[in-house]
Amino acid sequence: MTPKVSVILSIFNGEEFLKETVESILGQSFSDFEFMIIDDQSIDKTWELLQHYKKMDARIVLMRNERNKGETYSINMGIHRSRSQLIAITQCGAVSYKSRLEKQYELFRENRGYVLVGAQATYCDVEGKTLQHSTFPLDDKGIRKSLYVGRIIFEHPSIMFRKLNGMNYRENTFPEPDFDFWLRVSFYGKLRNIDEVLVKRIVHHKRISLTRRYEQKKVHWCIHKLFYERLKYGEERSTLCEENSKKKDLFEPFRNRMLHILSKRMFETKGVLHYCYLMLSLMFSPAPGKEIYYWIVKRVLIHFYSDKLLTKYLKMGETADMTNMG
User: Fold this and answer.
1) Angle between helices 252-268 and 213-233 (to 10 degrees)
2) For every residue of 5-70, which 3-state class applies, written as one string?
3) Phi, then psi, of 238 in degrees rounded to 5
4) What string of H, E and C letters represents the secondary structure of the chain?
5) Residues 202-221: pLDDT tens digits?
6) Which of 2, 63, 158, 165 is most enclosed, with most CB atoms within 10 A?
7) pLDDT, tens digit, 9 for 90 and up, residues 136-189
8) Confidence band (pLDDT; 50, 70, 90) for 13?
9) pTM listed for this prediction
10) What are the phi and psi torsion angles at 59 (to 5°)?
11) Half-sphere exposure of 69 (CA within 13 A, CB side)
């Protein structure tokens, strides 16, 4: 019998946080799902632990790459082999609250127009101390305005999306394939964030958003450029992500280290101090001028007027082409 939801977890050397992540999915109030776990050739005890869980729960479908191929490749393999038309993503170090799948599934069932749904998240350190809570925009219009100016407005392990024909994560957009995916999916239907914390994210030293922050920011703006091209011309006209990967910056290790420190401080602080660290982090980014423009100028201006491209993008949520669904 075909499950209503396919949950995908790509994991590499995740034994430290595996238990909380896996058990939070197996303990969901919504039970009609398959849990596809792809081990990316871990060298710790991850595979042995996964085999143990497989014996406990038949909903688990285990796969293992013959060599380390990365999270993007693994997620795509999960999407390709999934049996459901609804895909939920989780990640090692993310804990899904008991009602997460149920609430997201019901939203999709009642609203044919939605293609991607996320939720609010809470962030904590490895000791369980709460650091902050997300305040993502909720409705389609608010989400599109934020995406238009390059904001991250979904917590990746909180999303559920409809399977679209030919739509997967692009490997050449690593380490931000999720941002690229959200932008491309937004051309096919409505977006939504549930106004409830349904995921807890552990902020640990292995997170790519901390360890490879400079590279992430560099790719982020390449993806955003491709998005603008697709919105303006109906197609992507550059190969910025490929070209960007060839560029070398002698100061990249230093910039990355500074961004690592400042990003960690941003998670640990609130109020004025949080924004001070944010402003400092912009100065060490690959494109400080662009970062400042989008963070300060553009994000203020969109509350007062919509340019032609933004108006066009906002209307997509109302008139999106749903024929591309699998």
Assistant:
1) 90
2) EEEEEEECCCHHHHHHHHHHHHCCCCCCEEEEEEECCCCCCHHHHHHHHHHHCCCEEEEECCCCCC
3) -130, 170
4) CCCCEEEEEEECCCHHHHHHHHHHHHCCCCCCEEEEEEECCCCCCHHHHHHHHHHHCCCEEEEECCCCCCHHHHHHHHHHHCCCCEEEEEECCEEECCCHHHHHHHHHHHCCCEEEEEEEEEEECCCCCEEEECCCCCCHHHHHHHHHCCCCCCCHHHCEEECECCCCCCHHHCCCHHHHHHHHHCCCCEEEEEEEEEEEEECCCCCHHHHCHHHHHHHHHHHHHHHHHHHHHCCCCCCHHHHHHHCCCCCHHHHHHHHHHHHHHHHHCCHHHHHHHHHHHHHCCCCHHHHHHHHHHHHHHCCCCCCHHHHHHHHHHHHCCCCCEC
5) 876 555 444 566 667 778 87
6) 158
7) 999 999 999 889 888 888 999 999 999 988 789 998 887 789 999 999 999 999
8) very high
9) 0.80
10) -75, -15
11) 15
Could you count the other beta carbons within 10 Å of the beta carbon of residue 320? 19
| Rounded Cα distance, 195 and 138, in Å | 7
Least confident of 16-25, 70-79, 255-264: 255-264
- Helices 71-81 and 177-185, axial angle in degrees (round to 10): 40
CA distances, 127 to each of 19, 82, 123, 198, 204 (Å) = 15, 34, 11, 20, 10
Whether CATH 3.90.550.10 fits 5-209: yes
Where does the chain hold its CATH 3.90.550.10 domain(s)? 5-209
- Give first-to-last CA distance, the chain, whole Å: 18
Rounded to whole angstroms, the Cα distance separating 255 from 251 reads 6
